[in-house]
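Example 3.2
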Amino acid sequence: MVSIKGGRKQLATGVVSTVTAGLAFGAFALSGTANGASEVAEAAGAGRHTKPTIVLEHGAFADGSSWNGVIADLRADGYPVIAAANPLRGPASDAAALRTVLDHVKGPKILVGHSYGGNVISQAATNDPEVKALVYVAAFLPAPGESALELTNKYPGSTLPDALDPVTYKQADGSTATDLYIQQDKFRHQFAADVPARQAALMAAAQRPVAQAALEEKATTAAWKTKPSWDIVTTRDLNIPAAVQRFMAKRAHAHTTEVAASHSVAVSHPHLVADVIERAARATVR
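Structure, written as tokens:
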């Protein structure tokens, strides 16, 4: 039994072990209300620093609502939060979209990426001194020259290919491209096995496709090489095998938390995810 003190963050029995290893705007939530301004003023009066803004980047087959439980916890603890909309077209162009959000928000920031969103934050955070830490949630941490597809296949265990529903379409220039969905009748088993069936069905219906080319595009930079990183490894993940996640976390010298969860850990274990994000914020923004 692992329990995080503070009442709210009570974790499920036997699921967590912690190891320290060594966009244009979309759907978003900002704690910029009068209450938020009052909290900032009180913090300044007490000689404390304003808390960093947490920027959340979802991955493939999801949208910003996948962070709802995490956002609720972070806001309750006084953190400003933005859940950016990820276009899911390719790491370079998606990172450029996320940069528009980062450039708009002043002050220290913590970047959090789920799944393919890890590719995006790794590129978007490069050479940005205001990004103080990176948090990877069942995510890719590619090195330059690596793609998400290549990393997925590094170790066996992913059953994603058999669950995909490809949709091919013509682009404006006449060429063809392919978007990837997860078949709705396979979505819960593949992506969200520990999420209630009714909720998983809603997620399946609302999923956003990723361009096949995005999973094949190679990374050009890796911000985790120079910024402190935290990583949540999901040991029951059928999208990115746990062995792949451990390999990437170890290579990045990330502070690693393992949890017996599906790929949709931010939905099934939002308190755990929020707690790891807050630990990264406390460790890097003083």
